[in-house]
Amino acid sequence: QIRVRIIEGRQLTGNNIKPVVKVHVCGQTHRTRIKRGNNPFFDEVSGHTFKIANCLYDVCHFVMDITGASGDVCFVSGHAVMRKWLLLSDPEDTNSGAKGYVKVSMFVLGTGDEPPV
Fold it and tell me: Record keywords: Signal included (predicted)?
């Protein structure tokens, strides 16, 4: 099982924005509720169960889209990223700099594994 918790965003670029986070894993997409402002608080959890052998690449590389920017994180060791700020950038223009940050927790659980506290 893959669980992703979108906690909050900060310093998102733009005026009068309505940010939403989309998490794509193994061909499935989860969207947060739409928020307002440049420092949104989401605190939403997405949990999916997969046959991991069919999506090893997606387990390693989570790509999150938020208001036109994207963040990418890879974790294999420990199977978890807990309460980490990810830098958001424009995938079409890698020289444009930071587009904000999103705080997330993500982990992969195998059969019989307990989720981290």
Answer: no
116 lies in a domain?
Answer: no
Distances (CA, A) of 44 to 7, 25, 64, 93: 7, 16, 14, 29
Considering only CA atoms, which of 110, 112, 108 is closest in space to residue 2? 108
pTM greater than 0.85 (yes/no): no
Q: Where in the sequence is the domain holding 35, given as residue range(s)?
A: 2-108
Quick one: which of 1, 2, 42, 45 has its CA closest to 18? 42
Residue 82 lies in a domain: yes
Does a structural domain hold residue 86?
Answer: yes
CA–CA gap between residue 92 and residue 52 (Å, rounded): 29
- Answer yes or no: are the C-beta atoms of 99 and 89 closer than 8 Å: yes
d(CA 105, CA 85): 9
Total domain count for the chain? 1
